[in-house]
């Protein structure tokens, strides 16, 4: 939700931010500078929010003039962009909604900014500015993250089957968007891609990877992309910026060669030969933990570059937070400066402050209050405020059980309480407090444990042909149904039913290819109960019927044997 009320915005002021980072920058034709970044809570987590600040003279920046926050969600990775119609776009990502949203201000030079209705752009995250092609289309770079390549839990990821770096196109100035193409690059991480139009019309997509910067090409204006490869541009696993300037040169902002994995020595580079070589460079900031550049070429030709320094996220105490600079900075430079390798323009400047956090104005004792020190009621209130849609999952996450302490649980009672909570019967807070108390009491008993997930796998495998229900599996393991399902899904990203079906289908496919058994016999042998249910499950997971699978793979196997 976009917030512009002045009283509400006080909650997002610098004095109440523990950390901040991941900025974006824009400049109007009249010279007003906008900067956006995000903060909230103590790390990159649910409860994050985005803020927008401005400066009319390039000096002091305001406190937030707008913010984006939704209770129980994470609002993050904001982007600002002034389009060819001189409208200011504020774009942000929201999870677990797994969507990218935007709002447009028609007159960014107005005394009071007026924003249009929020609208959906696409799935999931867009961090970098759109690209306006010479033919008039606007291309928006959105990414659907691969959960195997990030640190975030499953709730952060799209339910869409495809992951990768996507391109959305609009030809009606943002009234509608079309998802036209994608590329999944090996070793990409968060993608954070940007599209660059070359002089010959070729489109190049540059993508963040674990080894540096990857690149993919499109010869049909963004619909199909070549297999990603290493661009040869060295960079830590971090965001970069690339853009064509009005002069025709290409601007690249990244960390200099030789820094390895460290986010240090952030620099601006220029190419005069379509990116073949980078002859000119200007060091913007040689300190450690400077990262995530965004830039814009202003109407007067100056290049404004923003980045963060020592964000302060993920620390364990305010004492640790205070050791970090927690700065949002910007530089104002010209192409002459980059060519000279030093500031030669009188109006150019480096390391200008957009926002620097000082002493926290709230109650410091509550910021990092550990779960262990909270009462059952305090913890329940925190969970209901921060994680309203995943209350039980969070309790299980905070208090993992093992094969020793699980015996102290009254599993039937726990399952009954969880059913009450999820069905909405009774006082939600009281039920949650009772669940927390129940699990906390059992978690006090520590002992040697056999991993729960492995135990569930053993039971499923040993009883594969009997088609045990989830409740029967829980009974054999001796644990709460809900806790078992939570832990299994968290560790494997599969439901127990999906895991059972995967094992059954593996056995069934082997029988279809190598045996002469009927479909009905194979169905019963694999514990499906009926051939019709077997066919239904097989079609759901394999997108082909058992008979078609046998005809296709069985024939292929016979052909293989004929050639041996």
Specify the number of helices.
15
Could you report the average pLDDT, rounded to the nearest whole number?
88
Strand content: 25-35%
Tell me the structural class: alpha+beta
Question: What kind of sheet is the major sheet?
Answer: 5 strands, antiparallel
Q: What is the molecular shape? A: globular
Determine Rg (CA atoms, Å): 27 Å
User: Residue ranges: pLDDT <50 for 5 or more in a row?
Assistant: 402-406, 445-450, 555-564
> Please, how many domains?
3
Major β-sheet strand ordering: 1-5-4-3-2
**Count of β-strands:** 25
Task: Describe the structure in your own words.
The chain has 3 domains: 2-365, Neuraminidase; 369-493, no CATH class; 498-562, Homeodomain-like (Arc Repressor Mutant, subunit A), CATH 1.10.10.60. The chain has 15 helices and 25 strands. The protein is 27% helix and 29% strand. It has a 5-stranded antiparallel β-sheet with strand order 1-5-4-3-2, with no helix packed on it. A 4-stranded antiparallel β-sheet has the order 6-7-8-9, with no helix packed on it. It has helices spanning 6-9, 318-321, 335-340, 364-367, 376-386, 391-398, 411-423, 428-443, 452-462, 470-477, 481-492, 496-514, 519-525, 531-542, 546-562; strands at 2-3, 21-27, 33-39, 49-55, 66-68, 74-82, 88-95, 99-105, 119-122, 131-132, 138-144, 164-170, 178-183, 188-197, 203-209, 213-218, 229-233, 241-244, 250-255, 264-271, 280-288, 290-297, 303-309, 327-333, 349-356. The model is unreliable at 402-406, 445-450 and 555-564 (pLDDT under 50). A hairpin with an 8-residue loop joins strand 20 and strand 21. The longest helix has 19 residues, at 496-514. The N and C termini lie far apart (65 Å). Helix 9 packs across helix 10 and helix 12 (496-514) packs across helix 15. It is an alpha+beta fold.
